[in-house]
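Might I ask for a little of your time on a matter of protein folding? What I wish to show you is a protein chain and, alongside it, a tokenised description of its three-dimensional fold. I should value your view on which stretches of the chain appear to form regular backbone elements. You will find the record immediately after this paragraph:
***
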Amino acid sequence: LCSDISPLLKDPAAFGTLIDLLEDHLRAAFPQIDFIAGERLDSRGFLIGPPLAQRLGIGFVLIRKKGKLPGPTESVSYALEYGKAELEIQSDAVEPGQKVVIVDDLLATGGTMCAACELMKRLKAEVLECLVIIELKLLKGSEKLKSVPFYSLLQYD
């Protein structure tokens, strides 16, 4: 239950408060952000990223499973607990030097978030921060994000 954000999504006041908290954090931490990036369409990070980007007056960039985006793409494969997967981003999604915050609902083992960071690195974007609502600390995913600032609203052991 601690890793399920469904109750937040069902309650408009709670969801609004969540976006308020994330917006306040980003405005205080970073004077300039060019894009919010969200991972995978099956991830609830897509439900958080667009309203957050809209509040900040910036664009939202899609990171998807391989084969889901049109046009030229960059892709990266990464290990899952149960196999391998690939993520991709459109090659022209961000320009070199643009500042990006990657958002997701949950950080577990960190594989997907690391893959998203790698995609941004390949496009020569600057990842300002990886931002999640919930971090499962026991799985030590944030340790994989050594060189990237990381922020979680809630932590569970």
In short: The longest strand covers residues 126-136.
